[in-house]
Structures are given as structure tokens and as C-alpha cells.
Specification:
Length: about 200
């Protein structure tokens, strides 16, 4: 969040976290504080800089053991409604209604991240509330898995004699991604370069 970065600023106390260390990056005029959640051991890094953007990111370790795409599908379904926001696609509703300067979610080879940014402080905390509830208290409805992951439908919905076809948001995303020669080459390289670890798989 935007704040003057320095090494002498007092660190606010929070009963749920233990402050571990502070580092100052002089070249960026950036102060980094590392905290640890006392009950779960989860890490929190706070970056203070003289910048108008308020940025937050939830990062989770999602290490695949095969190429079935579970982490990518969960990334999508987590944003399809939560305990406090049981509406259809609250993520896309917030994109249209908030003052965000960035909103997205990513799945990489061994992690999943949910970042957002806003220059408006109230909007930032509204987004923070929605994101944290989505990540930690997702509804994970079965129909959302069918929508976001993959499902089988008749090619012509009202014609049961038409061909069966695979559909789904992540399924179509991956079809597009793997149609790129560069992506195909990268996946082939990592598959054979890392035969025994997580980077062997396409997450």
C-alpha cells in the first residue's frame, strides 16, 4: 500500500501475527516487513513504498502430481461465489463496479495467485474482503466445476442426436494456450528436462 518507505517507522501490532524481520531496498525506496501467522504459519509480506497504488496478492502453493489441471480449475471455481458473497461470479461483478486498476488470478507451475490493485483506499478494502472470502471460504459448487473445468454436451444443445463435445472455461483456455507453438515447445522441454518433479506436468 502507498506509504513512505523507511526503516524507522513503527510496526503496528496485531495479535494474529508475529513480526519476523524488516528489510529496506534502497534502490527502490521500499521497506519490506515479514510476518508469520501464529496459528497457521502462513507468511505475510508488507511492502511500503511512496506509490499511489494499493496492491494485495494471495499466493498459494499448488504443486501438481499430474497434468489434470485441478489447480487451474480451482483457481476459477474459487471465484464463483463464497460464504459472504454467494452471488454468481462476484469476481466479474467487481471488475465492472470497482475502481480497480488491476484484477486477475493466475495458475503457474507450482503456485496460484489472486492479485488486485486500486488507488482508492475504500475500494481496496472492498476488494480485499471479496478476495479473501473467495480464496478461503469458496462455495465450490459442483455446477461451477462443470462450467469452469470441463463437461460433455451435445454439439447442438436441443438435438440429442448431435455429436458429443467437450466444453468448459479452463478447457477452452488450455486449448488456446496449447495451440501456440511456443507453449507446446515449452511444455515438451519441461516434460523431458524434469522427468521426476512437479515441472514435468502441465498445471
Amino acid at each position: 500500500m502507498s506509504a513512505p518507505a523507511n526503516t524507522t517507522q513503527e510496526i503496528p501490532a496485531h495479535t494474529g501475527f508475529r513480526h519476523l524481520r524488516r528489510e529496506f531496498v534502497e534502490s527502490l525506496n521500499l521497506s519490506i516487513d515479514e510476518f508469520e501467522h501464529t496459528n497457521t504459519g502462513a507468511k505475510h509480506f508488507h511492502l511500503a513504498a511512496d506509490n499511489s497504488e494499493n496492491v494485495f496478492l494471495v499466493g498459494l502453493r499448488t504443486v501438481p502430481t499430474d497434468s489434470n489441471g485441478v489447480a487451474h480449475i480451482l483457481e476459477h471455481t474459487a471465484l464463483c461465489g463464497s460464504q459472504r458473497y454467494p452471488v454468481r461470479d462476484p469476481f466479474f461483478m467487481m471488475i465492472r463496479r470497482s475502481l480497480n486498476t488491476f484484477m486477475n488470478a493466475f495458475t503457474s507451475s507450482d503456485w496460484t495467485a489472486y492479485p488486485f490493485a486500486s488507488q482508492n483506499r475504500k475500494d481496496f478494502f472492498n476488494l480485499l474482503d471479496v478476495y479473501l472470502d473467495a480464496v478461503f471460504f469458496s462455495n465450490l459448487d459442483e455446477l461451477d466445476f462443470a462450467q469452469e473445468g470441463h463437461r460433455i454436451e451435445f454439439e447442438t444443445p436441443d438435438d440429442p442426436d448431435s455429436e458429443l463435445t467437450f466444453k468448459g472455461v479452463v478447457f477452452n483456455e488450455m486449448k488456446g494456450a496449447m495451440s501456440s507453438p511456443v507453449s507446446t515447445l515449452w511444455q515438451a522441454l519441461t516434460k523431458y528436462t524434469f522427468p521426476t518433479n512437479t515441472y514435468h506436468f502441465n498445471s
